[in-house]
């Protein structure tokens, strides 16, 4: 069976040989996660730049969808170039930082112009990359350590991202704003941890969001994978057809589930977080939810996709 | 110990104390991402041989005027989420503290009353340990909340319902002899 159907129970088949051509042939484009797929830390995955080049020559689109909320898309464009990937422009890159800013712009500034006060401010728990995307979307930021709410223009949203300067004081400040039920609570992504290059892990946005949710009694709206908002952003800008698009990622609980939720066929690459044994365990599970985490296909590395493309 | 640099990549290189066998999360107004990093490192290094313990799960500590500050439960949840494992919680509603009291004093649950203001900690612990439970209304809980649980068909909510309530513990005085 060829094609890119996203329906039915996936069977985690290794992609190679004739199967590879059957799957890649009809595809109009591929969505790639970045960390653990294209690169690990400061090293490109061997063969990954060549794969993107071959996709370009085959006339297939390559777009990028990342839960990493640290960098602006401008910084990501420079990173692609520095790591040896040619021709990737900021407009091809959909990070959770960018999409969270777009989401907040829609909710605070869009559709009717709000209540005339410019939509209110956003309290961001995150670094400069995330803050910059929010500003670029036309939103104003609340400062840290400000006096009690009500002193200035109201804070209409708390945005939790990857914040390596997270403190109890910022958590308390966020909760102060969230006492207003009209104040949104938004998180860039649900990732509980990220791998470091030496095999250790660093806490992710998901762990900080859990603290804010617990303190405020609210559930965050999560922009990133596996939720589908980032795909909506991609469709709005590029109009991709899910039935002709493949999702390539390294994390079952985010990338593969995202593909399933968006109606895309999915390819797990083993150069990142998830192990093949985990995918097989989900496949053997009785739980319906677990089945949605099983990829249609897997490869050891995205370089393995190269033989599936025309010379 | 001081961290060897400003970024998480640096913090992940700081030497770990080889003697650490447990991560204990309590109320910490100086909680930070850097501390969360270090907690995660110890838990990953030790695996099941490194305990993860939380003092309690309170979501928030109320202040006057309806404001509140984040409770220990938030910090416990942050560590649990990063480490993808559950903490052993010492505080109410878990029965560990009751077991501590019962082992030191000769307590007959059938003749002991638990008095508290919070349904999901004080009253739940009391009910789980076979104590008679008495809710006082001078704290976080309103009678309407109790009625809501009482009318629910959910067994978990039923276990939050106290046997008795008073407006204040001062109301107990008339029942005690001179």
UniProtKB/TrEMBL annotation, chain A:
InterPro entries: HAD-like_sf, HAD-SF_hydro_IIA, HAD_sf, PGP_euk
Residues the record lists as binding substrate: 66-68, 194, 225
Name of the protein: Chronophin
Cofactor notes: Divalent metal ions. Mg(2+) is the most effective.
Residues given in the record as Mg(2+) binding sites: 33, 35, 250
Subunit structure: Homodimer.
Cofactors: Mg(2+)
Record keywords: Cell membrane, Cell projection, Cytoplasm, Cytoskeleton, Hydrolase, Magnesium, Membrane, Metal-binding, Pyridoxal phosphate
Main localization, broad class: membrane
Membrane topology designation: Peripheral membrane protein
Family membership noted in the UniProt record: Belongs to the HAD-like hydrolase superfamily.
GO cellular component: a single term: cytosol
Protein localization: Cell projection, Lamellipodium membrane; Cell projection, Ruffle membrane; Cytoplasm, Cytoskeleton; Cytoplasm, Cytosol
Catalyzed reactions per annotation: pyridoxal 5'-phosphate + H2O = pyridoxal + phosphate; pyridoxamine + phosphate = pyridoxamine 5'-phosphate + H2O; pyridoxine 5'-phosphate + H2O = pyridoxine + phosphate; O-phospho-L-seryl-[protein] + H2O = L-seryl-[protein] + phosphate
GO molecular function, one term: metal ion binding
Active site residues per record: 33 (nucleophile), 35 (proton donor)
EC number: 3.1.3.16, 3.1.3.74
A Pfam family: Hydrolase_6
PANTHER family: 4-NITROPHENYLPHOSPHATASE-RELATED, CHRONOPHIN
Organism field: Calonectris borealis (Cory's shearwater)
Role of this protein: Functions as a pyridoxal phosphate (PLP) phosphatase, which also catalyzes the dephosphorylation of pyridoxine 5'-phosphate (PNP) and pyridoxamine 5'-phosphate (PMP), with order of substrate preference PLP > PNP > PMP and therefore plays a role in vitamin B6 metabolism. Also functions as a protein serine phosphatase that specifically dephosphorylates 'Ser-3' in proteins of the actin-depolymerizing factor (ADF)/cofilin family like CFL1 and DSTN. Thereby, regulates cofilin-dependent actin cytoskeleton reorganization, being required for normal progress through mitosis and normal cytokinesis.
Entry annotated with the keyword Metal-binding: yes
UniProtKB/TrEMBL annotation, chain B:
Alphabetized InterPro entries for the sequence: HAD-like_sf, HAD_sf
Intracellular or extracellular location(s): Cell membrane; Cytoplasm, Cytosol
GO cellular component, one term: plasma membrane
Domain of life according to the entry: Eukaryota
Membrane-related topology note: Peripheral membrane protein
A GO MF label: sn-glycerol 3-phosphatase activity
Keyword Disulfide bond belongs to the record: no
Keyword line: Cell membrane, Cytoplasm, Membrane
Protein name from the UniProt record: PGP phosphatase
UniProt source species: Calonectris borealis (Cory's shearwater)
């Amino acid at each position: 069976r060829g094609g890119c159907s996203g329906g039915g129970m996936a069977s985690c088949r290794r992609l190679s040989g004739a199967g590879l051509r059957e799957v890649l042939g009809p595809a109009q484009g591929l969505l790639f996660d970045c960390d653990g797929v294209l690169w690990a830390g400061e090293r490109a995955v061997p063969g990954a730049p060549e794969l993107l080049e071959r996709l370009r020559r085959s006339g297939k689109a390559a777009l990028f969808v990342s839960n990493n909320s640290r960098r602006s898309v401008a910084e990501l464009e420079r990173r692609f170039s520095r790591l040896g990937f040619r021709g990737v422009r900021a407009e091809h890159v959909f990070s959770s930082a960018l999409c969270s800013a777009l989401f907040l712009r829609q909710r605070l500034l869009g559709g009717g112009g709000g209540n005339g006060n410019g939509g209110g401010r956003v309290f961001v728990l995150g670094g400069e990359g995330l803050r910059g995307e929010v500003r670029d979307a036309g939103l104003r930021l609340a400062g840290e350590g400000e006096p009690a709410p009500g002193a200035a223009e109201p804070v209409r949203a708390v945005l939790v991202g990857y914040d390596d300067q997270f403190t109890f004081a910022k958590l308390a400040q966020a909760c102060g704003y969230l006492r207003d039920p009209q104040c949104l609570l938004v998180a860039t992504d649900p990732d509980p941890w990220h791998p470091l290059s030496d095999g250790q892990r660093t806490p992710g946005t998901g762990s900080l969001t859990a603290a804010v949710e617990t303190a405020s009694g609210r559930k965050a709206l999560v922009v990133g994978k596996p939720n589908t908002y980032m795909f909506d952003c991609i469709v709005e800008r590029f109009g991709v057809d899910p039935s002709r698009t493949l999702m390539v990622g390294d994390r079952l609980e985010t990338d593969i589930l995202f593909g399933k939720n968006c109606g895309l066929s999915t390819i797990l690459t083993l150069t990142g977080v998830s192990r093949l044994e985990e995918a097989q365990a989900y496949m053997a599970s009785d739980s319906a939810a677990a089945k949605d985490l099983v990829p249609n296909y897997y490869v050891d590395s995205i370089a393995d996709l190269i033989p599936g493309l025309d010379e | 110990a001081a961290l060897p640099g400003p970024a998480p990549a640096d913090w992940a290189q700081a030497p770990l104390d080889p003697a650490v066998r447990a991560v204990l999360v309590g109320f910490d107004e100086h909680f930070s991402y850097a501390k969360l990093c270090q907690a995660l490192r110890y838990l990953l290094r030790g695996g099941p041989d490194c305990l993860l313990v939380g003092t309690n799960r309170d979501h928030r500590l109320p202040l006057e005027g309806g404001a509140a500050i984040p409770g220990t439960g938030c910090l416990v949840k942050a560590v649990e989420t990063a480490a993808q494992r559950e903490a052993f919680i010492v505080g109410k509603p878990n029965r560990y503290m009751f077991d501590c009291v019962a082992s030191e004093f000769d307590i007959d649950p059938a003749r002991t009353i638990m008095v508290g203001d919070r349904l999901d900690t004080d009253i739940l612990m009391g009910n789980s340990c076979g104590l008679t439970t008495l809710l006082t209304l001078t704290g976080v809980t309103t009678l309407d909340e109790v009625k809501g649980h009482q009318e629910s068909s959910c067994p978990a909510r039923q276990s939050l319902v106290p046997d008795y309530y008073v407006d204040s513990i001062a109301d107990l005085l008339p029942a005690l002899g001179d």
